[in-house]
Write a structure and sequence with these properties.
The chain is an alpha/beta fold. It has 23 helices and 16 strands. It has 3 domains: 100 residues, 3-Layer(bba) Sandwich (Glucose Oxidase, domain 1); 109 residues, PtsI, HPr-binding domain (Enzyme I, Chain A, domain 2, Orthogonal Bundle), CATH 1.10.274.10; 320 residues, TIM Barrel, CATH 3.20.20.60.
Length: 595
């Protein structure tokens, strides 16, 4: 007698919420990873170089075809595909591979493999999770070249003609852009995370996706019945009848709950006793602006501008930046758009320059420090921001300010740039609102000195917690110590709120804490003017705000501030607001900690 088949559960990262149930369709890429080394005679090196160039050229042609025929559902993601096209000729990837072929006298496949490993190492050691995820883009681009070098057969996702759930080691933006929403219910991959472009596209398409499963392609077989829960990051293989019924019911409830939340997303977020909190959204790509409107965002609280600077052969020009900003401002109309100036370190991010690697980039030449050191790059961006500010409700925000001198110097350069635009007769707005990120403890301590220099503070809780607690949140050895509920963090936030109120400075929050439902009562009690988050979280947070009584939240915060440990605060928060948050959140699944 054969043993009864039992279901298998795989835990990954919920990259796009929702639940789908269906047959698995494996996208098999085996063979691309099997690369053998062989040496090339000196006289044959030109042929080997040409073979690599031909593979890159073929990859460019393929991407051109995909971009030209991208489906309307994901047309807004064309810029991601354009970036992949640029990466094909990237100095780190293309130029270095050609050098490796010549210097080591090896075959193109082996040279490419060596170079990709080096580039992956560089990106994997970056402090910012969004930048670390760019290693996925490098891998996807190199896979496309490698496939051409090896003559491997490529899966045509656009040709799939049945209702399935895709399972793959990875799915590139080029592949996900070909997904037919009438046929593909969702997908699961071995690698990737929420900040990957694959995750971004999944959320834009609003289909469930679980990434970072590690071994999905080994555990799942073609036509296996699977459940993909993008809310919790769970994939269930061959679910039992009981599990299947449970998740079918969850799927129905999730969709009904999403419809309920959406109905209130365009209304103001006002507490039961009349306090209004404006709920904004964060974006990384210009194309995400449509999600802000669709989910009822009151504005854009953080427009990260790093994407245009990553993986390109040259820095973006003033006109390229202006075009991107103009698109966002045009769609948002009268709603505010807060543009954060460049927040990267210079180490290998712009491939036209070569900077020595920094031993600790999180504490190095990054963000405003990098911009003040490289003023021509900074002023190019400021010119674009000042000009687009003449077209809409634009605010500018300086990241990682750690001293009064940095803030005043940045402002001086801003107004010098405005003077230059005026002298050139170019339309601009020098009177736009100016703010700074509160993410460095020294700035928080100096908040009373900083306040007269800005119109608003925007709290970046991700870095503020990391720097205050001396914790690398991606280090599993210490990640459990990372929490907004640490008494030191709550006291810092209270101090910032008091200072902002006393100086009539607006106080916003664009860090991860703002998008966590369980923390909303605390943020209301602090008296924040705005909070900003992932666009999909906006309807949920607005509904939650409408269920809270501000007077009670303030009394509760007083109790929290008297506690001595994170656990005491966590217990109190759960006792006071756990049931309320659970009732409203239910199947939304945005309670996961992710940047």
């Amino acid at each position: 007698m054969e043993p009864t088949t039992t279901e298998i559960r795989l835990q990954g990262i919920g990259a796009s919420p929702g639940i789908c149930i269906g047959k698995a369709y494996l996208v098999d890429k085996e063979g691309v990873d099997i690369v053998r080394q062989y040496f090339v005679n000196k006289e044959d090196l030109p042929n080997e170089t040409q073979r690599f160039k031909a593979a890159v050229k073929q990859a460019q042609t393929e991407l051109d075809g995909i971009i030209a025929n991208v489906k309307s559902d994901v047309a807004e993601q064309t810029s991601i595909l354009e970036t992949h096209r640029i990466l094909l000729k990237d100095k780190m990837l293309y130029g270095k591979t050609l050098e490796t072929i010549a210097n080591l006298q090896v075959n193109a496949e082996w040279a490419l493999k060596i170079v990709v490993q080096e580039v992956k190492s560089i990106f994997s050691n970056m402090s910012d999770p969004y930048l670390r995820e760019r290693v996925t883009d490098i891998a996807q681009v190199s896979d496309r070249i490698m496939t051409n070098l090896l003559g491997a057969e490529r899966v045509d996702i656009g040709a799939i003609n049945k209702r399935v759930i895709l399972v793959a080691h990875d799915l590139s933006p080029a592949e996900t852009s070909q997904i037919d929403l009438e046929r593909i219910k969702g997908f699961a991959t071995n690698v990737g995370g929420k900040a990957s472009h694959t995750g971004i596209i999944a959320r834009t398409m609003a289909i469930p996706a679980v990434l970072g499963l590690g071994n999905a392609t080994r555990k799942i077989k073609n036509n296996d019945l699977i459940v993909v829960d993008g809310t919790t990051g769970l994939v269930i293989i061959q679910p039992s009848e009981t599990t299947l019924l449970e998740y079918e019911e969850r799927q129905i409830q999730y969709e009904a709950h999403q419809a309920y939340l959406a109905r209130g997303s365009y209304q103001t977020a006002q507490t039961r006793d009349g306090y209004e909190l404006r709920v904004f959204a964060n974006i990384e790509l210009p194309e995400e602006v449509t999600s802000v409107i669709d989910f009822g965002g009151d504005g854009i609280g953080l427009y990260r501008t790093e994407f245009q600077y990553l993986g390109h052969a040259e820095f973006p020009t003033e006109m390229e930046l202006l075009d991107s900003y103009r698109d966002v401002v045009h769609v948002m109309g009268e709603k505010p758009v807060t543009i954060r100036t460049l927040d990267v370190n210079g180490d290998k991010l712009i491939t036209s320059i070569s900077n020595p690697p920094e031993p600790n980039p999180a504490l190095g030449l990054r963000a405003i420090r990098y911009c003040l050191r490289n003023r021509d790059i900074f002023k190019t961006q400021l010119r674009a921001i000042l000009q687009v500010a003449a077209l809409g409700n634009v605010r500018i925000m300086f990241p990682m300010i750690s001293s009064y001198e940095e803030l005043t110097t940045a402002k001086e350069i801003l107004y010098q740039t405005a003077d230059e635009l005026e002298a050139e007769g170019l339309a601009h707005n020098r009177n736009l609102s100016v703010g700074m990120m509160m993410e460095v403890p020294s700035a928080a301590v100096m908040a009373d000195i900083m306040a007269p220099e800005v119109d608003f503070f925007s709290i970046g809780t991700n870095d503020l917690i990391q720097y205050t607690m001396a914790i690398d949140r991606v280090n599993p050895q210490v990640a459990h110590l990372y929490s907004p509920l640490h008494p030191a963090i709550l006291r810092t936030l209270k101090q910032l709120a008091d200072t902002a109120r006393q100086s009539n400075t607006k106080l916003f929050m664009c860090g991860e804490m703002a998008g966590e439902p369980i923390f909303i009562p605390i943020l209301l009690a602090l008296g924040l003017d705005e909070i900003s988050m992932n666009p999909r979280s906006v309807p949920l947070v607005k509904n939650l705000v409408r269920a809270i009584i501000l007077k009670e939240a303030r009394e509760f915060l007083d109790k929290l501030l008297q506690q001595k440990t994170m656990q005491q605060n966590r217990t109190l928060l759960q006792e006071h607001y756990g049931d309320l948050v659970s009732d409203i959140v239910r199947f939304n699944g945005n309670g996961n900690h992710s940047k």
